[in-house]
Amino acid sequence: METKKNIVVIGAGYGGITAALRLARLFHKHHNYQIHLIDKNPYHTLKTQLHEAAIRKTEVTIPIDRIIQRRNIFFHLGEVTRIDSAKQSVYMGSESLSFYYLAIALGSQVNFYNIPGLRENSFPLQTLSDAQLIYDYITRLCARAASEPVEKRRRDMLRFIIGGGGLSGIEFASEFADHAAQCICNYHVNPQEVEIIIIEAGSHIMSKMDESFAARIHKKLLEKSIKIITETKIVSRTPDTVTLSSGKVLRTKTVIWTGGIRIQELAKRSGMKIGQLGRIIVDEFLQVESYPSIYAIGDNALAVNSYSKEAVPAAAQFALQQGRLAANNIYADISGGMRKSYHPKLLGEVVGLGRHLAVGWLALPILKKITFVGFLGSLLKTAVQKKHIFLLRKESRKWITY
Ligand SMILES: Cc1cc2nc3c(=O)[nH]c(=O)nc-3n(C[C@H](O)[C@H](O)[C@H](O)COP(=O)(O)OP(=O)(O)OC[C@H]3O[C@@H](n4cnc5c(N)ncnc54)[C@H](O)[C@@H]3O)c2cc1C
User: Fold this and answer.
1) CATH code of the domain covering residue 150
2) For residue 108, how far is its CA from the centre of ligand 1 (angstroms)?
3) Which has the least CB within 10 A, 33, 154, 239, 355?
4) Quick one: which atom of ligand 1 is closest to the CA of 43?
5) Is residue 253 domain-shared with residue 146, that is, in the same domain?
6) Pocket mutation for ligand 1, best pick of 39, 47, 76, 174 (most atoms within 8 Å of C-beta)
7) Ligand 1 mean position to 140 CA, how many Å?
8) 354 lies in the same domain as 325
């Protein structure tokens, strides 16, 4: 009996799920190839909406079985612990799966930069369980603060620090400010006692975005009574305090840490070359250097923009583009077609500033773009998020409700 050749995708996030669905479509008549998808969770996480789950407990996952239903995709629930690039196998503990081609899309993890006390005493926001923890904690803390009779203790409970003024920190802070306003009203808390403070190491928030947009976002955050401290780092954390690089010590029970990402060391341990933040060095086809049967996608891949010569940022829109391209290139490799180079397309940037407000721009044909601030922006942000689900539906030919 002829054994099938395995094309394995590890990670079912934005990049991995797109690659797996695309591969299933391309190989649907090639019965000697089997597509495998591995993830440690049985669901696809809409990571760009995690801040909403952390504050409003919204649904941000889609079960993988619904996405891959009736497709030539074999799903494995398991944590990848090792990649043997020479033997062409991936390991989930003692179980192994050999691969003919592999696409690595394991996303990123939080980076605490070894700041003393930060890992032990702060909340990251990278996974569904992080969001659930934050939701439970904040719900309890707000209720406890409302019934705390000592003002000093109440103020410590109601001072919330967000470490990192990038996209996830800003979106979380804005969503949280709306929620805090609601709690203040429901629990009769004095609004003067609530403080939300963003600490940003750079000279301005949203450092990767156009400065004029960053300035608009800054203004909107101030209107929500969010304080912003720039050019300052968190240098240590205890359960009750945060020490800043300026020497200032803030008393707080809560730090939400969104200050940086890093990539898990699986690829490095298996001999692949890595660059900044531990991202895997790939060529213009997204192929891993020295390993022609391995591709890397999304946050894992250190892809370079051939025009600007800069690293492509870790963002969902690039993970989606790369997932599709890696699948097409694997198909081209196997079928003898022409592979295509990766040219990142920045389709827009939309920053949600709470439930009914967003700032950003979207690309239009012929080098034009539309910019927006306000409620219309939040509708467009929702449309961008829904587009991903729509494309999953289209690829899986299945109506996914979530
Ligand atoms: C709060 C927040 C808000 C964000 N907002 C935006 C936004 O508005 N716009 C934007 O473009 N980007 C945003 N990002 C960044 C974006 O989410 C990431 O760039 C994107 O998710 C990367 O996609 P990926 O496919 O590389 O990895 P991911 O989507 O992270 O998927 C990785 C998958 O791998 C699985 N996995 C990890 N390790 C293992 C293992 N060892 N074994 C098995 N499975 C494993 C995970 O369970 C996960 O399913 C945000 C990120 C966060 C945290």
Assistant:
1) 3.50.50.60
2) 6
3) 239
4) 49
5) yes
6) 47
7) 28
8) no
Q: Please tell me whether residues 12 and 29 are part of one structural domain.
A: yes
Is residue 127 domain-shared with residue 256, that is, in the same domain? yes
d(CA 293, CA 35): 14
In this structure, is residue 165 part of a structural domain? Answer: yes
Q: What domain count does the chain have?
A: 3
Residue 361 within a domain: yes
Examine residue 172 and state whether it is found in any structural domain, yes or no. yes
In tens digits, the chain (402 residues) has pLDDT values of: 568 999 999 999 999 999 999 999 999 999 999 999 999 999 999 999 999 999 999 999 999 999 998 888 999 999 999 999 999 999 999 999 999 999 999 999 999 999 999 999 999 999 999 999 999 999 899 889 888 999 999 999 999 999 999 999 999 999 999 988 887 778 888 888 889 999 999 999 998 888 888 999 999 999 999 999 999 999 999 999 999 999 999 999 999 999 999 999 998 899 999 999 999 999 999 999 999 999 999 999 999 999 899 999 999 999 999 999 999 999 999 999 999 999 998 888 889 998 888 888 877 776 677 787 877 777 777 877 787 887 777 776 655 555
Measured CA to CA, the distance from residue 71 to residue 27 in angstroms comes to 10
CA distances from 33 to 30, 71, 218 (A): 6, 13, 51
Domain range enclosing 50? 5-108+263-345
CB contact at 8 A, 29 and 47:
no
Q: Which pair of structure tokens corresponds to residue 174?
A: 């804005």
Beta-strand ranges (E) seen in 126-259 are: 159-163, 195-199, 226-229, 234-237, 241-244, 249-251, 254-257
Does residue 41 sit in the same domain as residue 19?
yes
Check: CB of residue 357 under 8 Å from CB of residue 374.
Answer: yes
Among 260, 284, 307, where does a domain finish?
260
Q: How many CB atoms lie within 10 A of CB 133?
A: 15
User: 11 C-alpha to center of ligand 1: Å?
Assistant: 9
Instruction: Report which of 222, 195, 159 is spatially closest to residue 353, judged by C-alpha positions.
Output: 222
DSSP state of 270: T
Per-residue tokens: 193: 């006692």
Q: Within a domain: residue 114?
A: no
